[in-house]
């Protein structure tokens, strides 16, 4: 796979270039298949195969740069073990079957108990794929047991945004990285997990600009090497640190009184033992009393940071002349109090006034290419509907029923099971309360990514009345337990639309054919729905008796897209996306028209049509200077405020200890995470020889002093155990990362060494997101 640059014809600023065809290569644009950064690549195709990848020079996200995974993204299509044919398990053996039989089996299995069916996808679903799944479940089955694996990584960010601003996703954008004076990373190893974004900051230093980088973390990483200040805190104590910053701002009278009085309100849980999404209003005086105990002296004892470090953080937020950007990812989200720590970081930005101007922003970074665009905006979570709507709200269900042309009451008013509960119910015998009997998995690998894997996945073994259908591109731990395997097209083998971490919606076209009989996930969903329609299932008809999914060409002729030989006669993606787009308007998430996206490397919503017919994106939401929905003269306006008065909420959330801390029997903290070379469960990146060779297997990081005490040397085989299981790994001492004494770190990409056999399934009580970063463990030399 060559990394190459394409000859291009320049178009207007902000528009994608028109490719030329030198040396027989045809170039086109696409967002990278990996993380939520949303880098854009140029894809070079020759003789029906992707042969070259280049960073897109006009892409605002990456400006022509890619990370090591991005430069090899084309290689993920060509692993030797691609799944190419549908397979059905008969008498314990997987046998090849036809697509007609596979679709029929799936449809009939769902029809056996439609209320007991679960649909599990991810932030790798494209927007049209997620929207089709939404419509299939909510309008077709009257079933809300649909979830994305974004529940495992971004749910706490969602609840943090919603309970603070009344609407999800960041107010700022990546431009803040180009403008900030201070970048604070909260448990966020940006140098490895979002390296292209981190390079934007480091590049500023090479130009002579001063950017103070603060790494607040529980383990030294590649990011730490570039930081001006590394502040190592005890796991879970980030809650206390954020409260300490707020305490000092108030004690010194250094909060932004004008901003807070005009634009903020205060909030807390009515009962701290039973936290809720919306809480109750409190006064500033009440907030001040609650926060008072989080002094630097007290929090130093709790967190392990020095008084001087805590004062230093407060000094930064107390300085109105500085521009401060905070970023975070899994360290804050995969947390038993994930919603709380998200709220608190938003709160210190609001309290200090470091909000809403370029360089001043609290920004969550996502791990999947469309966790924002699909899981969050399309709303494929068990409690959600498109465009920020909620299953629990009568008005929101009615709006979707009208839009989908189904009778009133079709959408079930009861939210479905969140991810951990969905899989627990599927892996529990039916006669013991396991009321999920069949599951369809698309674009994700829960057999490796779920926490507490024995309980939430492997217990499916031997349950004869449970039926698992898996659409994927490669064999994975998930396909090992599948009863039906559906071979999937991937990335540029299909059309697609993603939405990245900065609200940027990005479109691409199919460029090459998938191998064998692999087909698009969106077609599978439509085909299963059509087969159910043919078998007489009433839910697959709208109120007029027509099939739920209708597609017409430009002349108004209906195209039977469920017939694969007719599927490509129209752009099904465009049809589904344009059907979804009006639903994005309720909470001012106006995504750009499909045909406009075709011309760009992405546009940040809300995208509003101008008087001259052009479309303008929004960089900074809630700020009058840039957001067209802020009323003139308001300066800032949180127009979906939960308090109904245009104000953002500054929350008090108490520090709370973790439910499974180290003990004499299990004396170490255990943490999982990612590595630079591999993306999540590595089912794609391990098929790229260069990436597999650079990082072939998982390991355990241990502090040198802990290793010395345990008699462990670099490269020794060790056994790491928690209350849920044990794993044999190679010890890595003073390697790429370095945990403090009493801590272990294991990456979770290795399917032969499943780190999630060890993790616990304790959840944030509000977001229902698991904590992969903290549990108790022990280690011994084998």
UniProtKB/TrEMBL annotation:
Pfam families per the UniProt record, alphabetical = Molybdop_Fe4S4, Molybdopterin, Molydop_binding
The free-text cofactor remark is: Binds 1 [4Fe-4S] cluster. Binds 1 molybdenum-bis(molybdopterin guanine dinucleotide) (Mo-bis-MGD) cofactor per subunit.
Q: Does the keyword 4Fe-4S apply?
A: yes
A GO MF annotation of the entry reads: electron transfer activity
Q: Which GO terms describe its biological process?
A: cellular respiration; Mo-molybdopterin cofactor biosynthetic process; nitrate assimilation
Where in the cell? Secreted
Record-annotated residues binding Mo-bis(molybdopterin guanine dinucleotide)?
69, 124, 149, 153, 236-238, 330, 334, 445, 471-472, 494, 521, 672-681, 756, 773
* Summary of subunit composition and partner proteins: Component of the nitrate reductase NapAB complex composed of NapA and NapB.
Q: Which gene encodes it?
A: napA
Keywords recorded for this protein, A-Z: 4Fe-4S, Electron transport, Iron, Iron-sulfur, Metal-binding, Molybdenum, Nitrate assimilation, Oxidoreductase, Periplasm, Signal, Transport
Q: What is its EC number?
A: 1.9.6.1
Q: Which HAMAP family has this protein been placed in? A: Nitrate_reduct_NapA (MF_01630)
The organism's superkingdom is given as Bacteria
Q: Give the matching SMART domains.
A: Molybdop_Fe4S4
Protein source organism: Haloferula rosea
Its recorded name reads Nitrate reductase
Which residues bind substrate per the record? 748
Q: Which residues form the 4Fe-4S Mo/W bis-MGD-type domain?
A: 25-81
A cellular component annotation (GO) from this entry: membrane
- Specify whether Acetylation is a keyword of the entry: no
**Where does this protein hold [4Fe-4S] cluster?**
32, 35, 39, 67
Q: Which cofactor does it need?
A: [4Fe-4S] cluster; Mo-bis(molybdopterin guanine dinucleotide)
């Amino acid at each position: 796979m060559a990394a190459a640059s394409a000859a291009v014809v320049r178009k207007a600023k902000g528009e994608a270039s028109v490719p030329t065809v030198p040396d027989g290569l045809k170039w086109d644009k696409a967002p990278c298949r990996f993380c939520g950064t949303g880098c854009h690549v140029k894809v070079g195709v020759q003789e029906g195969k992707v042969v070259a990848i280049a960073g897109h020079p006009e892409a605002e996200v990456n400006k022509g740069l890619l990370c090591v995974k991005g430069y090899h993204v084309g290689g993920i299509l060509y692993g030797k073990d691609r799944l190419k044919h549908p397979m059905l398990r008969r008498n314990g053996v997987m046998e090849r079957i036809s697509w007609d039989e596979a679709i029929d089996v799936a449809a009939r299995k769902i029809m056996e108990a439609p209320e007991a069916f679960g649909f599990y996808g991810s932030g790798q679903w494209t927007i049209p794929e997620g929207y089709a799944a939404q419509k299939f479940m909510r309008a077709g089955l009257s079933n809300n047991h649909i979830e994305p694996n974004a529940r495992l990584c971004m749910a706490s960010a969602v609840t943090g945004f919603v309970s603070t601003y009344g609407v999800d996703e960041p107010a700022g954008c990546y431009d803040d990285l180009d403008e900030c004076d201070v970048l604070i990373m909260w448990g966020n190893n940006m140098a490895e997990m979002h390296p292209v974004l981190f390079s934007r900051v480091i590049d500023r230093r090479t130009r002579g600009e001063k950017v103070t980088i603060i790494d607040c973390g529980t383990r030294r990483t590649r990011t730490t090497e570039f930081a001006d200040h590394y502040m190592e805190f005890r796991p879970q104590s980030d809650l206390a640190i954020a409260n300490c910053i707020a305490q000092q701002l108030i004690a010194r009278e250094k909060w932004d009184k004008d901003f807070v009085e005009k634009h903020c309100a205060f909030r807390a849980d009515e009962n701290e033992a039973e936290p809720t999404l919306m809480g109750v209003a409190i006064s500033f005086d009440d907030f001040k009393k609650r926060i008072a105990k989080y002094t630097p002296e007290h929090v130093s004892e709790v967190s392990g940071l020095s008084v001087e470090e805590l004062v230093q953080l407060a000094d930064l937020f107390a300085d109105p002349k500085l521009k401060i950007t905070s970023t975070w990812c899994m360290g804050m989200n995969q947390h038993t109090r994930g919603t709380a720590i998200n709220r608190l970081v938003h709160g210190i930005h609001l309290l200090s006034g470091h909000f809403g101007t370029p360089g001043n922003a609290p920004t969550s970074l996502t791990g999947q290419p469309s966790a924002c665009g699909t899981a969050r905006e399309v709303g494929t979570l068990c409690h959600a509907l498109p465009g920020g709507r909620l299953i629990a709200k009568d008005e929101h269900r009615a709006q979707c029923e009208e839009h989908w042309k189904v009778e009133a009451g079709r959408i079930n008013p009861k939210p479905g099971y969140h991810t951990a509960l969905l899989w627990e119910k599927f892996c529990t015998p039916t006669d013991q309360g396991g009321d999920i009997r069949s599951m369809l998995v698309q674009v994700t690998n829960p057999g490796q990514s779920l926490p507490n894997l024995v309980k939430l996945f492997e217990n499916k073994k031997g349950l004869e009345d449970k039926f698992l259908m898996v659409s994927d591109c490669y064999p994975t731990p998930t396909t090992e337990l599948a009863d039906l395997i559906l071979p999937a097209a991937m990335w540029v083998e299909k059309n697609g639309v993603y939405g990245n971490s900065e609200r940027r919606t990005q479109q691409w076209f199919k460029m090459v054919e998938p191998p064998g009989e692999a087909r698009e996930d969106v077609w599978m969903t439509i085909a299963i729905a059509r087969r159910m329609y043919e078998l007489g299932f009433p839910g697959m008809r709208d109120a007029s008796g027509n099939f739920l999914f209708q597609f017409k060409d430009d002349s108004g002729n209906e195209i039977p897209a469920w017939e694969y030989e007719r599927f490509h006669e129209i752009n099904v993606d465009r049809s589904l996306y344009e059907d979804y787009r009006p639903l994005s308007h309720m909470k001012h998430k106006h995504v750009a028209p499909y045909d406009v996206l075709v011309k760009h490397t992405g546009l940040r919503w809300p995208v509003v049509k101008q008087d001259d017919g052009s479309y303008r994106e929004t960089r900074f939401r809630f700020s009058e200077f840039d957001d067209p929905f802020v009323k003139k003269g308001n300066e800032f306006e949180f127009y979906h405020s939960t308090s109904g008065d245009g104000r953002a909420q500054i929350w008090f959330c108490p520090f709370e200890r973790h439910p499974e801390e180290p003990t004499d029997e299990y004396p170490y903290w255990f943490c999982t995470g990612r590595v630079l070379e591999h993306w999540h469960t590595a089912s794609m990146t391990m098929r790229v020889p260069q990436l597999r060779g650079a990082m072939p297997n998982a390991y355990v990081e241990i502090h040198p002093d802990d290793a010395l005490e345990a008699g462990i040397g670099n490269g020794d085989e060790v056994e790491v155990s928690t209350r849920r299981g044990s794993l044999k790994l190679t010890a890595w001492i003073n390697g790429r990362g370095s945990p403090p004494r009493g801590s272990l770190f294991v990456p979770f990409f290795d399917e032969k060494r499943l780190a999630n056999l060890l993790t616990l399934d304790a959840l944030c009580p509000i977001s229902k997101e698991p904590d992969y970063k903290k549990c108790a463990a022990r280690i011994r030399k084998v």
